[in-house]
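Our example pasted here:


***
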Amino acid sequence: MSILEEKFVLPCGQILKNRICKAAMTERIADGNNYANHFHTSLYEKWADGNIGILLTGNVQVDKRYLESAGNVAIEKSSYKEQIPLLKNWAEVGTRNNTQLWMQISHAGRQTPGELSIEPLAPSNVGLKIPGVKYGKPRAMSTEEIKDTIERFVFVGKIAKDTGFTGIQIHSAHGYLISEFLSPDINLRTDEFGGSIKNRSRPLMSIIEGCRNELGNDFPISVKINSADFQKGGFSSEDSIAVAKMLNKAGIDLLEISGGTYEQPRLLGLDNVSINPDRSEIRKESTIAREAYFLSYTEELKKLIDIPLMVTGGFRSKVAMEAAINKKACEIIGIGRPLCVDPFSVKDLLEGKINQLPAAEKTLSIGPGWLSLKSPFRLIQALNAFSIQSWFYIQIKRISEGLNPDLLINPFKAFRIDGKNNKKSINNYKKFNG
């Protein structure tokens, strides 16, 4: 039997049926009220039938004024009672076949689209610098707003448990609000929430403490952090190690390692992958050797902490996944994009029908020359990155609608379709929220 099929006992005592986790991918299929619906149940029913140990939801927002997308699910005290049956339906299908369903809880911070808020919240008034994308100028949060946000995270964690979700993950990566507090180039505060890494970690640690007190010691609490922001003056690997040591003392159950922000999207893997004119994938030798973009970091981190680690990003072959666990670089393997191409691919991998997950990058048709992923123009690089993201959003939406993925769709066409879908979501959001 492969080590990937082995059960794993979390520090809280809960048991995972295997070592595979569906990584969080934003679904963007909520209704105008930002409620879960039948699209979520259809999508997660498919994934729950795919023999995956943990299903992580896309980022469920704690404040519907500041979303990552108009199609996010958001849970607030003012309207949560109406959402209870919908969330229970989601949890019921997502926990089929002894599957763990964990709610990823988030606040978009300054990465709230400008169409939703012209003045999003952030630790300080440092705006995003992304060519061709509109974001509002953020407003520095007051102490009262920080405390309110912490309470919102804890409240959503309680709702997750009450409605049947079997765990939660606090999103503190990819440039969202809690990640912004950790980053010294964004967090310029001089109060108890700024300056030292201990102060910058205060919101995150307060959320974990509140959730543990509210949810009990036997309920899984996970955290997602960056190994680094990959930006000069930003959240460094040294900062990340310091935060990991704090989390170790806090007694969380799983730490997921990722990296990058909207301004430096290393999480897309575009620095490790290029596309040939014949549309075949090229990977650097270092990427081929490891297959996981953040694995070398976790190998060193494991020497310093006891928390089980999860690595997401780049895994495709069964051999590489098994090697990562056997060398004790991580305990859990996170899989994202292949499950948009084939929701049952993990099941096939564990049953021995395939030895490698589908590499969606091979199907992406990006133009040559100045339009390529290696274009010298930053605007074109951003367009490529967001077009590829849109390609995967389209596949998620298709699966939620009961359709098969369309692997032949061009990323630029997907970008246009996704833009239309997003505009529709924004209009629905404004209809319900003024």
